Q: What sequence folds into this?
C-alpha cells in the first residue's frame, strides 16, 4: 500500500476530467433534470406542486414589485412639494411592500415544501435501490462490473440525487428571478437589456469557471480520496482495531494516511488558489462592467432616452439579476456534474429490475432433486467452477458434499437450491427445471445455514426469527434454540431474547464466533423447510455444541432432504451418499464404506484427518 498514490489505477467509473463548458451545460440540463423531476413527483407530488405554484407566484411578485418601484421613483422624482410627491407615491409604495411581502411569504413556503421533498426523495431513492439489489439473482454479486455499478449507485447516486433535488429547486427559483427582472426591464425600456448583460456576464463567467475548476479537481483527486477513506476505516473501525494494536501497526497506518493525505491536501490547495484567482478576476471585471453599466445608464438619462425613475429601477433589477444569474450558473453546473451519478443510479435500477414474468409455483415439497450434466461458470471468470455434474437426491436422504477448498461444494449447493442458474445442464425438482418455476416458491422450501452467516444488528429474537420473519411461533423459537444450543447463549444475555446484538449501539452485546453460529443454526431450524443445506455449520463450534447440532440434524432429516457440506469427514460417515468434488468435477460417490473400500481420494483424505486426531 505504499506506492505513490498518483500511480494508482484509476477506477473505470471515474468521471471525465474534461470539465463542462457553457454550451454542454445548457444541452445537458434537460437530460439531467427530467429524471430528478420525475423522482420528486413520485416522492412528494403535493409538495412539488406547491413549490411550482409558490415559485411562479414569487417571480410574479418580484416583477410587479419592480414595476411598482418605477412608479414610486417616478412620483418621488417629479416636480412639486415634497409632501405632495410622497403622498402621490404612497399607493405604489404600498403595492411594493405588499408585493415583496407576498414574495417573502412564498419563499418561506418554498423552503418548507423543499424541506419535505428532499427527505422524501432520499427515502424513495433508497427503497428503490435496495429493492433492486435484493431482487437480482445471486450470481450478479459475483460479477465485478455489477458490483461496481451497485456501489456507484449506492455510494454516490443516492447522495447526488438528494443534492440534485436541492439544485433543481434553486435553479427554477433563479430562472424565475431572472425572468422577472428581464421582463420588467423589457417593459420599462428595451435598451436596458444589453445594459443588464454588461453587469452580469463577468460574474456568470467567474461562477462557471470556478465550477469547472472544482469539477476537474474532483476528477483528479477521486482516487486519492478513496485511499484516504480506506485508511480512515482502518484507523476508526472496530474490526481492525485489535489486530492493529496487536501488531503495533499504528505508525504504519498513520504513514499510509500521510502518503495519500498530503497530495490530496496539495490538490485542494491548488484548486482553492485557482478558484480564488478566477473569482478575483470575475469580481474585477464585474466591477468594470457595473461601472460601464452606470455610465451607460447616465448617458441614457442625459439623452432623455430613459427617465431617471426607470434608471433607478434598472439599478435594482441589475442587482437582483446578478445574484439570480450567479445562482443559476452554479446550480446548472452542479446539476450537470451530479447528473452523471444520477444516471449511474438509474442505470443500475434498469439493469437490476426486470419485468416480472408469471411462472408456476412449486406445488409440493420436492421428493426428488436431479442434476443432469450441470456446469457453472462465474461471471467474468475464465474457468468453470463446476463441470458436467450429475446426481440424484431423494426425499429423506442426507447427502454430503466433500472436497478440498475451491472444489465447488458451495457452488453446487447453491445450484441445488435454485440460487444459481447453470451455465449448461439442468437442475430439476420432481422433473421440472427449477428456473421455470417461481423463484419465491422455491426459496420458501429451502433452508441454508452458512459458514459465515449474517450477524444481524438486532435482538437475539429477531436474529432467529429472520429465518422466517413472517412466522410468529414462540414455541418453535424456543425449540430451535434448544436444538442448536442457542438457548445457552440467550440465557447468558443480560436481557435474554430482547438483548441487542451489536456493540455499535448503546447497551448492545457482542457474541463470539461460535455463539453467532449457534444463533444461525437456530435460525435455520426455525425456518423449518423441506430442503436443508448446511455449509460448514459447525466450523466455529466446540465439540459439545457440534455434537448437539448434528444430533438435531439427524432428527430433522426424516422426510427432508439434507445437503451437508463439511471438511470434517468424520461428520459424514452416516450420510446416505457422499459426493467428492475435485477442481469442479464429481470424482467419487458412494457411502462411507464404499468410498473407503475404493481406496481413492476420499479414503486418502479421511485417513489424513484420522491420523491428525490419533497423533493428537
A:
Amino acid at each position: 500500500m505504499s506506492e505513490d498514490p498518483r500511480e494508482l489505477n484509476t477506477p473505470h467509473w471515474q468521471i471525465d476530467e474534461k470539465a463542462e463548458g457553457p454550451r454542454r451545460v445548457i444541452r445537458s440540463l434537460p437530460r439531467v433534470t427530467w429524471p430528478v423531476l420525475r423522482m420528486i413527483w413520485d416522492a412528494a407530488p403535493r409538495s412539488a406542486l406547491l413549490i411550482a405554484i409558490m415559485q411562479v407566484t414569487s417571480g410574479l411578485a418580484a416583477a410587479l414589485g419592480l414595476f411598482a418601484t418605477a412608479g414610486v421613483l417616478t412620483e418621488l422624482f417629479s416636480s412639486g412639494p415634497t409632501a405632495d410627491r410622497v403622498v402621490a407615491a404612497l399607493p405604489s409604495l404600498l403595492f411594493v411592500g405588499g408585493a415583496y411581502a407576498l414574495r417573502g411569504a412564498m419563499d418561506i413556503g418554498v423552503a418548507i415544501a423543499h424541506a419535505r421533498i428532499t427527505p422524501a426523495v432520499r427515502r424513495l431513492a433508497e427503497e428503490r435501490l435496495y429493492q433492486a439489489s435484493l431482487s437480482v439473482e445471486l450470481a450478479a454479486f459475483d460479477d465485478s462490473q455489477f458490483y461496481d455499478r451497485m456501489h456507484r449507485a449506492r455510494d454516490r447516486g443516492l447522495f447526488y440525487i438528494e443534492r440534485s433535488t436541492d439544485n433543481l429547486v434553486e435553479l427554477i427559483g433563479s430562472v424565475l428571478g431572472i425572468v422577472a427582472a428581464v421582463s420588467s426591464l423589457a417593459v420599462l425600456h428595451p435598451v436596458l437589456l444589453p445594459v443588464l448583460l454588461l453587469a452580469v456576464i463577468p460574474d456568470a463567467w467567474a461562477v462557471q469557471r470556478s465550477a469547472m475548476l472544482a469539477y476537474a479537481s474532483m476528477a483528479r483527486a477521486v482516487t486519492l480520496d478513496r485511499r484516504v477513506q480506506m485508511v480512515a476505516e482502518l484507523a476508526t473501525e472496530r474490526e481492525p482495531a485489535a489486530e492493529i494494536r496487536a501488531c503495533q501497526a499504528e505508525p504504519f497506518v498513520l504513514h499510509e494516511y500521510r502518503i495519500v493525505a498530503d497530495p490530496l491536501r496539495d490538490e485542494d490547495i491548488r484548486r482553492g488558489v485557482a478558484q480564488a484567482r478566477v473569482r478575483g478576476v470575475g469580481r474585477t471585471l464585474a466591477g468594470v462592467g457595473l461601472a460601464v453599466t452606470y455610465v451607460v445608464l447616465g448617458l441614457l438619462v442625459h439623452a432623455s432616452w430613459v427617465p431617471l425613475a426607470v434608471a433607478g429601477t434598472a439599478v435594482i433589477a441589475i442587482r437582483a439579476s446578478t445574484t439570480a444569474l450567479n445562482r443559476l450558473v452554479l446550480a446548472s453546473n452542479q446539476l450537470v456534474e451530479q447528473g452523471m451519478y444520477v444516471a449511474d443510479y438509474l442505470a443500475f435500477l434498469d439493469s437490476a429490475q426486470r419485468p416480472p414474468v408469471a411462472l408456476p409455483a412449486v406445488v409440493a415439497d420436492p421428493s426428488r432433486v436431479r442434476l443432469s450434466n450441470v456446469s457453472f461458470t462465474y461471471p467474468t471468470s475464465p474457468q468453470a467452477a463446476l463441470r458436467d455434474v450429475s446426481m440424484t437426491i431423494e426425499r429423506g436422504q442426507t447427502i454430503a458434499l466433500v472436497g478440498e477448498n475451491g472444489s465447488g461444494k458451495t457452488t453446487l449447493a447453491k445450484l441445488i437450491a435454485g440460487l444459481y442458474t447453470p451455465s449448461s445442464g439442468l437442475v430439476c425438482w420432481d422433473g421440472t427445471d427449477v428456473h421455470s418455476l417461481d423463484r419465491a416458491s422455491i426459496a420458501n422450501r429451502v433452508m441454508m445455514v452458512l459458514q459465515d452467516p449474517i450477524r444481524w444488528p438486532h435482538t437475539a429474537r429477531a436474529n432467529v426469527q429472520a429465518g422466517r420473519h413472517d412466522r410468529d411461533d414462540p414455541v418453535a423459537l424456543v425449540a430451535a434454540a434448544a436444538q442448536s444450543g442457542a438457548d445457552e447463549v440467550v440465557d447468558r444475555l443480560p436481557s435474554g431474547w430482547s438483548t441487542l446484538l451489536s456493540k455499535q449501539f448503546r447497551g448492545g452485546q457482542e457474541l463470539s464466533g461460535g455463539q453467532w453460529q449457534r444463533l444461525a443454526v437456530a435460525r435455520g431450524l426455525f425456518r423449518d423447510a423441506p430442503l436443508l443445506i448446511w455449509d460448514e455449520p459447525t466450523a466455529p463450534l466446540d465439540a459439545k455444541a457440534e455434537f448437539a447440532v448434528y444430533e438435531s440434524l439427524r432428527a430433522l432429516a426424516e422426510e427432508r432432504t439434507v445437503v451437508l457440506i463439511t471438511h470434517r469427514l468424520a461428520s459424514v460417515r452416516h450420510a446416505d451418499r457422499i459426493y467428492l468434488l475435485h477442481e469442479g468435477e464429481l470424482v467419487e460417490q458412494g457411502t462411507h464404506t464404499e468410498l473407503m473400500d475404493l481406496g481413492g481420494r476420499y479414503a486418502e483424505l479421511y485417513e489424513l484427518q484420522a491420523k491428525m486426531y490419533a497423533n493428537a
Remarks:
- The chain is about 65% helix and 10% strand.
- The CA atoms of residues 358 and 438 lie 8 Å apart.
- Confidence is low (pLDDT under 50) at residues 1-21.
- The two ends are 40 Å apart (CA to CA).
